[in-house]
Amino acid sequence: MLTIQQKTEFSEILDELGETLDITESQFNAAVTSYNAVGNWLCSDESKLKPYSPSVKPQGSFLIGTTIQPYTDGQDIDIDLVCELTGKNPQWTQKDLKDIVKEQLEAHKKYESILDEEGRRCWTLKYRENSVNNDQYHMDILPAVIANGYNVVLTKFFSESRNINFDSLAIRITDKELLNYEVATDPDNWLQSNPFGYAKWFIDRAETSNLKLFSLNESIQPVPKFQKRRLPLQRVVQILKRHRDMMFKDDKEKPISIIITTLAAYAYEGQTNVLDALVGVIDRMHLFVEDAIDQDTGEAYRFVGNPVNLSENFADRWRDTPGKEKKFNDWLKKVKFDINNAGQQSGQHNIIRNLSESFGENAVKKAFTNIGNKTKLMTDGGINNFNAAVGLTSTGKSAIKPHNFYGTEK
Hints:
The chain has helices spanning 4-21, 25-42, 60-64, 94-106, 109-114, 150-159, 195-206, 216-219, 232-248, 257-267, 274-284, 316-320, 322-343, 348-359, 361-380, and strands at 55-59, 77-86, 123-126, 137-146, 171-173, 191-193, 290-293, 300-303, 305-306, 309-313, 385-387, 392-394, 398-399. It is an alpha+beta fold.
């Protein structure tokens, strides 16, 4: 069993690892500049979308602060966006709207050159493909229709309210797999999504009475500021996603991020340090994968509910591809073992070697370098001290020597 000192040090390592996995301020600003430029182009005077005031906002991990760096130089940062239209032409179907967004993107020489083939719901701009800046990201742009006054409601809820009706944050999106994709003109008959309601739910789960470090309202501003600090749950999700990436590499059946993020948020119990949060989450995630029965066929299946739309099953692909559920269970078993094993190591060299196998050598070494630099600055300034009452590194009480991890002084 870890001592209090060891737990403190291991939590510090994991927190620093999560910060190392985070995108940099320059990467963040480059992405914001890019998606604002796309939004401005879609709203240009000659655009068919102009009358509906299109705007582009982040969704998914970029919105909730859980985006991570690629595990290798050949991978991209994935940035999910929503292209919102306030209303639409009454004659437009989902296909019409999606095609018009494509037409407008192709009217711009740069966007035409980096536009990928049509996805199920989105258009993807592959910035790495034609970038003088070697931008290492791609953007998935989801066309959507919102109601008049939606953005006012969204800003109010993100900045003020905790007890909200999540349904009021729902939007209508395009999906080419729907039978009515080419015929339905009424958005009420289109697929409903709620990326902003989900973001609100996630951050509400992440915040505690003492921890409020991340602003969703800031994230949806036209020129959002980079937010460096993260809540323990955000760090946990980043760590889990990196472990998933390292375990499965290019396997297309690896556990998807929305399942990992949702189960982590369900399982989180408000722990205020990263180690306790991570251990608690990985011990409880399986409890929120439920059994369900198809009322039409009587078939049993596994269910991971969307917390803001309980009719949606994030694990619906498990029914078609049972191997995906097995890989999720294999991953959860492995991450439990790896975290427990890393916690049993003694000495910096062994901890680095152990964590590198699960999270990547470069990220782990960078995290330890950052910790060493911070420790040196604190020691040189005379503020690296030991509080004998609680066993934590803090200010006040008796001064201590710089630690070499897990109690071995040097």
